[in-house]
Amino acid sequence: MADWVKVAGSLSAISAGSRTTVWGVNAASAIYRYTNYDANPWLGIPEALSDIGAAADGTVWGVNGGNQIFRYVGDQAASNPWVNITGSLVRIDAGSRTNVWGVDSAGAIFRYTNYDPNPWIKVPGSLSDIGTGADGTVWGVNAGNQVYRYIGDQDSSNPWVGVPGSLKRIAVGNRTNVWGVDPAGSIYRYTNNDASGVNPWVKIPGTATDIAAAADGNAWHVNSGGEIYRYVGDQPS
Q1: Which domains does the chain possess?
Q2: pLDDT tens string for the chain (237 positions)?
């Protein structure tokens, strides 16, 4: 595929904060960090996670198979690279140190308060996946594959606006770098145009089960076979 370059390894979930901050987990819940060197691309990190969120500023959060929540502190305390944060989530994403969102097993939505003793505030709505960008942009999809963008910082009476489309997975790097995967595995990129009667998504070649979008425009995906791809469709062929 001309739009994607394959990177060695096998992952089931992936998240990208920037070109140099890419993390993933494999089917056995092992955690990997991108080395920025395709010839030897992944460094194993201790612990086991089922989902992971990596931000442009280096912030990384994850959840495990028991829905426990962890924040990475391996760059601060090497003896124990993860600190457990109170709460229960099945999906998590981090746009920055202060912009972390997740959803629990019932579809409830939570935003990090930036205060570990009382870490989460519940936000109205129900989602099955969520993506948040470095600039505070937040999108989500629900169990019916409906797509929403957060506007709760603009309209408190209705914090989510529906956007046409049908997606199962969503990833946000920033306001203008939003990607998704539909129930059939097709990959879509947001056109930045919600206007009525206009399709806000452009289909990108490839099939995926999870997608990652970074603040600097980078994107990655993994497919049902665990194969890993980095987007190069915005570069000269």
Answers
A1: 4-231 (2.130.10.10)
A2: 579 999 999 999 999 999 999 999 999 999 999 999 999 999 999 999 999 999 999 999 999 999 999 999 998 876 889 999 999 999 999 999 999 999 999 999 999 999 999 999 999 999 999 999 999 999 999 999 999 999 998 877 889 999 999 999 999 999 999 999 999 999 999 999 987 778 899 999 999 999 999 999 999 999 999 999 999 988 765
What's the CA gap between 66 and 200, in Å, rounded?
36
Q: Which two tokens stand for residue 55?
A: 């931000």
Write the secondary structure of the chain as one string of H (helix), E (strand) and C (coil). Answer: CCCEEEECCCCCEEEEEECCEEEEECCCCEEEEECCCCCCCEEEEEEECCEEEECCCCCEEEECCCCCEEEECCCCCCCCCEEEECCCCCEEEEEECCEEEEECCCCCEEEECCCCCCCEEEECCCCCEEEECCCCCEEEECCCCCEEEECCCCCCCCCEEEECCCCCEEEEEECCEEEEECCCCEEEEECCCCCCCCCCEEEEEEECCEEEECCCCCEEEECCCCCEEEECCCCCC
